[in-house]
Design goal:
Elements (H helix, E strand, L loop, with lengths): L19 H5 L6 H5 L7 H5 L11 H12 L8 E9 L12 H4 L3 H11 L9 H4 L2 H7 L2 E6 L11 E7 L4 E6 L13 H12 L5 H12 L6 H19 L6
Parallel strand pairs: 1-2
Antiparallel strand pairs: 1-3, 3-4
Helix pairs in contact: 4-6, 6-8, 10-11
């Protein structure tokens, strides 16, 4: 806004006398260290991680472990107790979430939903799902033990879940890293596309969602007309979200 009103600045603000360099750095400042800062960047090593589930990232550990147990618990009404063991993370210790948003940050709810449904998607975090009686029943039987012995750093942490049935039988699973996490197995294309479609179908119909996927898959080769079509579809998405009229 200042520039729009005609304000100017010293074009040598970095190196000028009493400029940025003199204000913050000593004469013996190591420029080589500055230029090397951050390398290797995490985007390169260990690389980025794709979120398979629409929730806070550490919850992916508990979801992955719970999904492994889903097929072993054929009758959820027979669950006597669920025990989650993980690092000290108070912000995900939410034993009684009331909304889908709270559920995204609740280890207890993430485990419960995965155990009951065998899948976790956009619909998992609707308020109506959190408030269903089957969810509330299992939540009441779920405890989260935070262990000082488990590292908090995501590249070192792990989560264990054990389910005990009313007949005394128990089963357990452990996740040291969800799919597509650093060093973990990659998501398959089908698994990745399932997440993408689940997100897009929240606002787009099937034909628009599939066309957008097709266009994005060849983004670097799109003609100007293809780019325009892609932005038109994305514009429809934004219009539905915001209610604003967008220019044609």
């Amino acid at each position: 806004m200042l520039a729009a009103r005609g304000f100017t600045g010293n074009p040598s603000v970095i190196e000028a006398e009493n400029g940025y360099r003199d204000a913050f750095f000593l004469e013996e400042f190591d420029y080589t260290a500055l230029l090397a800062f951050g390398q290797p960047y995490r985007m390169v090593d260990p690389g980025f991680a794709i979120k398979q589930f629409p929730s806070q990232y550490p919850s992916h550990f508990v979801i992955t472990a719970a999904l492994e147990l889903h097929s072993r618990v054929s009758n959820p009404s027979e669950i006597a107790s669920v025990k989650i063991t993980g690092p000290v993370m108070n912000y995900v210790n939410r034993p009684a979430p009331q909304t889908g948003l709270e559920g995204k940050f609740s280890f207890q709810y993430a485990a419960t939903a995965a155990l009951l449904d065998g899948e976790v998607g956009i619909g998992t975090f609707k308020d109506s799902r959190v408030q269903k009686s089957d969810v509330q029943e299992v939540l009441g039987k779920t405890t989260f033990v935070q262990s000082e012995d488990i590292p908090k750093d995501m590249d070192k942490m792990y989560v264990e879940i054990s389910v005990t049935l009313k007949n005394g039988d128990s089963t357990a699973a452990r996740c040291d890293g969800p799919k597509d996490f650093w060093g973990a197995p990659k998501l398959s294309r089908d698994e990745h596309m399932k997440k993408i479609r689940d997100c897009l179908r929240l606002r787009l119909d099937e034909s628009a969602a599939e066309r957008l996927i097709e266009l994005c898959a060849s983004l670097e080769k799109l003609s100007p007309a293809g780019v325009e079509e892609m932005t038109d579809i994305a514009g429809c998405f934004e219009n539905r979200v915001t209610g604003r009229e967008l220019p044609s």
